[in-house]
C-alpha cells in the first residue's frame, strides 16, 4: 500500500498562510521586551477556548495604525474583516503595554484561529483519511469493477464469438431444417403415393392370385392342348406326307417331263407385222397355219396341231403361268430335283417368262419361285423342318461356263464335277454360291446376275440371246425331330435362241447353240427310249442338267413362240422339238430323303 501523505495537497497550499502568520508574529516579537515575549509565548501556547474567554472578558484596546509598524499583511482576511468592523482605539506608539496587549489580543485571536485551524486540520485529516479510505475502497472497488468489466468484456467477446458461431450454426440448422422440411414434404408425398401403391399392390396381388389361378387352369389346358396339338401335329405330318405323296403321284402320272407352250403377244411396235393363223383348240392343244399356204395350191394338210400339258395364250398372265409351274417348285420343296427351262427362238419371250419384267405383277417364274419357297419355309418350320437356301447364277456361252455372280473380267475355269462317286449330284467348280435368307436377298443377287449378263452382252453383241442362262437354287432341309434330311436342286434355265443356222450370220455361236440343243434333244430321246447310255456329257448344258433331267428328277419345259408369220418356220421347229420332249417319259422320280445320325 502507498504511503498516505500527512497533509492533503489542498491543506499544504494553506500552509504558507500559517507561516506568514508566524513571520508576522516573529516581526512583532522582535520589538518586545523579554517579559512581554514570555507572556506572549505563554498566551500563545494557551488553549484557544481560554483565549476566547479572556478576549471576551478583557476587551482588547483599540490599536492605532502606525506608519512605523508595518500592518500584518499575512493576517487572515477574517481578522481583517473583524478589524474593519470593530474600530479599535488608536494606541499611541509609546504605549508599549497597550500595544503589547493589543498584540497579545491579536495573538490570542490568531492562536484561537490556529487552534481552530488545527482542529479543522484534524477534522480535515480525519475527513481526508475517510475520503482516502473511501477513495482507496473506491479505487479497489473500481479495480475490482475494472477487472470485472475486463472479464465481462472478455466473456462478452467470447460470448459474441459464441453468438456468431451459434448464429452460423443457427443459419446452418435453419437451412438443414428447411431441407428437412422439404424432405419431410417429399416423404409425405412419397408416403401417400406409397400408400396408394400399397393399395394398388394389394389390388394387383389379388389380381395376381386370380391370374395365377387362371394361369394354373390355362397351364392344365395348355398341357391338354399340347397333347392334342402333338396328336394334331402327327396327323398334320401324316397328312403332309400323304399330300406330298399324292401330289407327286399325280405329277408322276402326268409325267416327269412336262411341256407347256406359251404364245407371246405382239408388242405395240410389232402391231403391223403379219401373223400366222393360231387356233387354241383346247387347254392343251393348238393349231398353227401359215397365211401364205391358206390359198396355196400345195397339197397336204396346212394346219399343224400340237398337244402339250398346257397352253398359255397371248392373254395369259405371269400368274397364270406360275400357278402351273408352282407344283414343280412345291416338288423341289418336297425334296425332288427340278428343272424348268424356257425354249424358243430369240424374242419369243423366254426371258420374260423366266425372269419377268419390272413390277411384281410382271415377275417371272424365278422371282415367284423364290417368293413361294420363303412363304413355305414358315409352314415347314412349324413341322420341324429347317431350310437353308443357296443360290448361284451361271451362263453357258460357246460351251464355256461363266459365273454371273462374279463381276471380274478374268473368270476362273469352271468345270462340271460330281459331288459323289454315284454321280447323282453335280456341282460347278469355282462357282460362287450364296446363302439367301429372304426373297429380297435372292432378288438382289438376280439383279446383279442380270447386270453382269447385260455387261457381257454389251461387250459381245447379242450374247444374252446366244447363251444359256441358269439360276440354281439349292434347298437343304433338316428335321432334327425326325432325324431326316434332304437336298434338292431347282434349276431355272433360260435357253439360248433356237433359231436355225440359216437365219443367222453368227455361225460359230449358232453351231454351239444348235449342238447343245440337239444334245438336249438327244438326251431326252435317249431317256424316252430308256437307253442304257444317256449322252449327258456331250454338251455343257446337258451335263449340267443331268441330275434334273435324269431319272431322279422332274422337268418342265416351256416352249415360247410368237405369232409372226415370218417366224412360222422357227415356231414349227420349236413346237416339234417340244412335242419330242413331251413324248419322253422318265422313270419315276425319287425323293432325295435320307435318315441321318445326330
Ligand atoms: N407374254 C408377254 N407379254 C408381254 N410382253 C412380252 C411377253 N413375252 C415377251 N414379251 C416381250 O417381248 C420382248 C422379247 O421377249 P424376251 O426378251 O423375253 O425374249 P427372249 O426369248 O428371251 O429373247 P432372247 O432369246 O433374245 O433373250 C420383250 O420386250 C418382252 O418384254
TrEMBL record:
Question: Hey, what's the signal peptide range on this chain?
Answer: none
- Positions the record marks as coiled coil are 146-221
The cross-references to InterPro entries, in alphabetical order and at most eight, read:
Kinesin-like_fam, Kinesin_motor_dom, Kinesin_motor_dom_sf, P-loop_NTPase
User: Pfam families, from UniProt?
Assistant: Kinesin (PF00225)
Q: Where does this protein hold ATP?
A: 344-351
GO biological process assignments = microtubule-based movement
Location within or outside the cell:
Cytoplasm, Cytoskeleton
Q: Does the keyword Nucleotide-binding apply?
A: yes
Please indicate if the UniProt record lists Amino-acid biosynthesis as a keyword: no
Question: Which cellular component terms (GO) are annotated to the entry?
Answer: microtubule
Which keywords does UniProt give here? ATP-binding, Coiled coil, Cytoplasm, Cytoskeleton, Microtubule, Motor protein, Nucleotide-binding
Please list the GO terms describing molecular function. Answer: ATP binding; microtubule binding; microtubule motor activity
**Database matches in Gene3D superfamilies:** Kinesin motor domain
Q: Where is this region: Disordered?
A: 1-24
Residue limits of the Kinesin motor domain?
256-584
Family as reported in the entry's similarity comment: Belongs to the TRAFAC class myosin-kinesin ATPase superfamily. Kinesin family.
Name the chain's protein. Protein claret segregational-like
Amino acid at each position: 500500500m502507498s504511503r498516505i501523505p500527512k497533509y492533503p495537497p489542498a491543506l499544504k497550499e494553506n500552509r504558507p498562510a500559517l507561516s506568514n502568520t508566524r513571520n508576522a508574529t516573529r516581526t512583532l516579537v522582535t520589538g518586545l521586551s523579554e517579559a512581554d515575549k514570555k507572556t506572549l509565548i505563554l498566551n500563545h501556547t494557551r488553549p484557544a477556548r481560554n483565549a476566547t474567554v479572556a478576549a471576551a472578558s478583557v476587551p482588547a484596546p483599540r490599536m492605532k495604525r502606525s506608519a512605523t509598524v508595518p500592518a500584518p499583511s499575512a493576517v487572515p482576511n477574517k481578522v481583517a474583516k473583524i478589524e474593519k468592523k470593530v474600530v479599535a482605539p488608536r494606541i499611541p506608539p509609546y504605549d508599549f503595554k497597550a500595544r503589547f496587549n493589543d498584540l497579545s489580543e491579536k495573538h490570542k485571536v490568531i492562536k484561537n484561529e490556529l487552534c481552530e485551524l488545527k482542529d479543522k486540520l484534524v477534522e480535515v485529516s480525519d475527513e481526508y483519511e475517510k475520503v482516502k479510505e473511501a477513495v482507496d475502497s473506491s479505487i479497489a472497488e473500481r479495480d475490482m469493477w475494472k477487472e470485472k468489466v475486463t472479464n465481462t468484456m472478455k466473456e462478452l467477446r467470447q460470448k459474441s464469438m459464441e453468438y456468431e458461431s451459434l448464429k452460423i450454426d443457427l443459419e446452418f440448422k435453419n437451412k438443414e431444417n428447411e431441407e428437412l422440411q422439404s424432405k419431410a414434404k417429399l416423404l409425405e408425398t412419397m408416403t401417400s403415393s406409397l400408400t396408394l401403391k400399397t393399395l394398388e399392390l394389394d389390388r394387383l396381388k389379388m389380381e395376381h392370385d386370380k391370374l395365377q389361378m387362371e394361369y394354373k387352369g390355362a397351364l392344365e389346358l395348355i398341357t391338354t392342348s399340347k397333347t392334342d396339338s402333338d396328336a394334331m401335329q402327327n396327323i398334320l405330318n401324316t397328312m403332309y406326307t400323304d399330300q406330298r405323296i399324292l401330289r407327286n403321284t399325280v405329277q408322276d402320272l402326268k409325267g416327269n417331263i412336262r411341256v407347256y407352250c406359251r404364245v407371246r403377244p405382239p408388242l405395240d411396235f410389232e402391231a403391223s407385222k403379219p401373223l400366222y393363223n393360231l387356233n387354241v383348240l383346247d387347254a392343251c392343244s393348238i393349231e398353227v397355219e401359215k397365211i401364205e399356204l391358206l390359198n396355196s395350191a400345195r397339197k397336204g394338210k396346212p394346219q399343224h396341231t400340237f398337244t402339250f400339258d398346257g397352253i398359255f395364250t397371248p392373254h395369259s398372265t405371269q400368274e397364270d403361268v406360275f400357278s402351273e409351274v408352282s407344283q414343280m417348285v412345291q416338288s423341289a420343296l418336297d425334296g425332288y430335283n427340278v428343272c424348268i427351262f424356257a425354249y424358243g427362238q430369240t424374242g419369243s419371250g423366254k426371258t420374260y417368262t423366266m425372269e419377268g419384267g419390272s413390277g411384281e405383277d410382271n415377275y417371272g417364274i424365278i422371282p415367284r419361285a423364290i417368293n413361294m419357297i420363303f412363304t413355305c419355309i414358315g409352314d415347314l418350320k412349324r413341322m420341324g423342318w429347317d431350310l437353308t437356301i443357296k443360290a448361284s447364277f451361271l451362263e453357258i456361252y460357246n460351251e464355256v461356263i461363266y459365273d454371273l455372280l462374279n463381276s471380274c473380267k478374268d473368270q476362273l475355269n469352271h468345270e462340271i464335277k460330281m459331288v459323289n462317286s454315284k454321280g447323282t449330284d453335280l456341282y460347278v467348280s469355282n462357282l460362287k454360291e450364296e446363302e439367301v435368307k429372304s426373297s429380297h436377298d435372292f432378288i438382289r443377287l438376280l439383279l446383279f446376275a442380270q447386270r453382269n449378263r447385260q455387261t457381257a452382252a454389251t461387250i459381245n453383241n447379242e450374247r444374252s440371246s446366244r447363251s444359256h442362262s441358269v439360276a440354281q437354287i439349292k434347298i437343304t432341309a433338316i428335321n432334327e425331330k425326325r432325324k431326316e434330311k434332304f437336298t434338292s436342286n431347282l434349276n431355272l434355265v433360260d435357253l439360248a435362241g433356237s433359231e436355225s443356222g440359216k437365219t443367222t450370220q453368227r455361225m460359230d455361236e449358232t453351231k454351239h447353240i444348235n449342238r447343245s440343243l440337239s444334245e438336249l434333244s438327244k438326251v431326252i430321246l435317249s431317256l424316252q427310249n430308256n437307253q442304257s447310255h444317256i449322252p449327258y456329257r456331250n454338251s455343257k448344258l446337258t451335263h449340267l442338267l443331268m441330275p434334273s433331267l435324269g431319272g431322279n428328277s422332274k422337268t418342265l419345259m416351256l416352249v415360247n413362240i410368237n405369232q409372226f408369220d415370218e417366224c412360222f418356220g422357227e415356231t414349227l421347229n420349236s413346237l416339234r422339238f417340244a412335242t419330242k420332249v413331251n413324248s419322253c417319259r422318265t422313270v419315276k422320280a425319287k425323293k432325295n430323303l435320307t435318315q441321318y445320325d445326330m
